[in-house]
Amino acid sequence: MIPERELxxxxxxxxxxxxxxxxxxxxxxxxxxxxxxxxxKGLKKEKIHLSCKSxxxxxKDGIFAGRILKGDISAGIMHLLIFWGFSFLFLGTIVLAFDxxxxxxLFGKKYLFFSFSLEVxxxxxxxxxxxxxxxxxxxKIGRLENKREDFIVLLWxxxxxxxxxxxxxxxxxYQNPEWKKFSFFGLLFSNIFSKDTAYMIYPFFxxxxxxxxxxxxxxxxxxxxxxxxxxxxxxxxxxxxxxIVPVEEREDVFTYRELIQIDACTRCGRCVEICPSSGVGEPxxxxxxxxxxxxxxxxxxxxxxxxxxxxYCTTCGACLEVCPIYIPPFRIIRELRAREIExxxxxxxxxxxxxxxxxxxNNPWVSSKKRTEWVKGLDIxxxxxxxxxxxxxYFVGCTTSYETRAQEIxxxxxxxxxxxxxxxxxxxxxxxxxxxxxxxxxxxxxxxDHTISCIELFQEYGIKEVVTSSPHCLWTMKNEYPxxxxxxxxxxxxxxxxxxxxxxxxxxxxxxxxxxxTYHDPCYLGRHNRIFDSxxxxxxxxxxxxxxxxxxxxxxxxCCGGGGGRMWQEELDVDVxxxxxxxxxxxxxxxEIVITCCPLCLIMxxxxxxxxxxxxxxxxxxxxxxxxxxxx
Amino acid sequence: MNIILCVKQVPDVTEADIRIKKDGxxxxxxxxxxxxxxWDNYAVEEAVRIKExxxxxxxxxTLGDEESEDVxxxxxxxxxxxxxxxxxxxxxxxxxxxxxxxxxxxxxxxxFDLILTGAQSADMGWAQVGVLLAGMLNIPYxxxxxxxxxxxxxxxxxxxxxxxxxxxxxxxxxxxxTIQSGINEPRYVSVLGIRRVRKLKIEEKFLDDLExxxxxxxxxxxxxxxxxxxPPPEGKGAEIIEGSIEEVCERLAQIIKEKGGL
Lengths: 632, 262
Description:
Mean pLDDT of chain A: 93
Largest sheet of chain A: 5 strands, parallel
Number of strands of chain A: 9
Radius of gyration of chain A: 30 Å
Strand content of chain B: 15-25%
CATH class of the largest domain in chain A: Mainly Alpha
Number of strands of chain B: 11
Oligomer: heterodimer
Largest interface: A-B, 27 and 20 residues
């Protein structure tokens, strides 16, 4: 006998099966169009480009679970087993349909190979589901939120798979074919019932299997199973060019990109696990905000997030770093803030005060325009007064200009530049705020104003190269200005300039320093601007220095708690501050000095050092101060 | 509920070094930023909340120079519907009566149910314009309101009195209420909000149009004369600590310790 299998053996009526299939697929497509219609609302004039790199990402992070494996191998294995098992079984069904309706080729050895493959796929799926159960309900992994949906989806898949194998067993028990050993797993179920009983109950279980499977298909767009469609899309669009809609033209809050990303979230909770705000016990969790918006936008639930919560986010970007499908909750939260700012009635009082100060006085710190107090006693060119073209423009930034501790950054950096004979100048009293704070807290009108004043000033004085104190200014100027206006200016952070001076041999250290230090990666320098090595190279260029890394470093760095407007929102702090958690990690390294590269980090860590009583054992220094110390 | 709002632009002196002009009658305002008078900001918010609840129209009025259009635009962005600016020319040096007179001659021809003003201004602090205006219009008034409730064509106002006591009064409509700070939390006005009202027309009135005898307003018409402006004298108990931040903090901590504060 030639090995093969008769489709619809002892089952039917076929017409009813076709009818139900049609219903199930229709429900699926109805659900799908509902999602697409929401995505379309966010789609303005931009196009989604075809990109090989993005397809590569989908393959790597989708099909091969790249990011799911990262940091949680068991989760990765679970997902790979379920994904590959499910995909093979799904493909198998398509092949079977092809064989049945179009061209019969599944017989003999080909059939045996096919049958064996599906058997393996089924086992993979079962193992994956088993692992999922263990993780969720035995190990009780902290970041997993257990909602009813999670249980039902899992149970559903388990039932489909088991009824499938069970049916196979019944069939084998009746047919008893000589090639049955190729269906080794289904065979286990073949001895439960006698040949006649198996034949009798087969149709009943066939229908159960069919109904479970068909309803599963129609449930996809209405449950978290929809990530099968939205997650690959979310990975695909992550590298699509960003755009900023001018505030006066903006209608809906979210862009298509954000809508797809919100839609793709499976609530895996990695963002909650890594979030520095959640980490110190603040009531904010990125996942919760995303899933509340998702329920509201896509499933019409009347859920409302607490508007206070969106102000906790420091926009540090740690969540994006761990999200398996590249959802950036901080960008979505920024859009929610923009909505709150426009409404105005629920903006926290301190935030409103800061923004009003920014509007009137061009800085978030004091109601004064005396920006150049820090210059006293230093010889620095004011580009707006002495028109000398081609100078490196040092954009000092608000915090570095006004805040006493941070002023030391500007003073020491200027001294180093002077020592190295670098021709540079500042914008003096005319220097505006770069717009970072406004952008991060959703005051997009003010952000536009700041952007335009900065660009106009750069152009007026023929500035081609800008170096900033703050990684926040750098991020805004380098990545967001070009989205509003075409500019031909290069932007750098001072750590890059220092590195350049060392490489050129202009800056060199004759004396050594015999000190153990550690380096704190500012979120906006590291994660956002991807500058991890420049400051480290500068530190390592000083002879005798021992650089110890903290537990969280580089892209996993812990936020100091100062970004995204949090510097001016002290009322949100809880018992433990983010900066205190970070300073304790510094302390654990045994380093004598923690070096950082951002005015906000400097202030936050300096405060934490004092509140934690580490004044004796630990010093917080800016990279410039440290370099200057090594030089003097 | 149609509301008329009277607002004023004042210099922001929260963190400014104030210098007195040579003639000793005013402060140097050149380097100062102008903002809406704090009390008036609460009045705008209160008016907008009343409008959101009961409907109606808000007309906001100021007496000032062209620059003071900013406070009108701000009020429009918050939810006011129309704005009138009475040009300052001829009113310079007015006492509260002169200013109230200017406002009166504009308001007397307008229909309204309520007039809201700030309880006082941050710069001169007379706290009289509101009540004088009520007197001229011959309508009842309540001052220092910390809560306003509207019930069947009547207004119940909670007034702040001394040493943490309050008084509830009932006023008919129309009437005038002066608003105490803290009555509400004024909403944030976004740049977008201000841009949206940029093109709204602001009605302008000039002294000549108002049929006010010029000798009733301005310095000439003022029965109060500002003689001399001076900073408060240094008290005997005051010690100005000088030096670097470390030195200042050390000295401060020492004083607190000495006085038994720690």
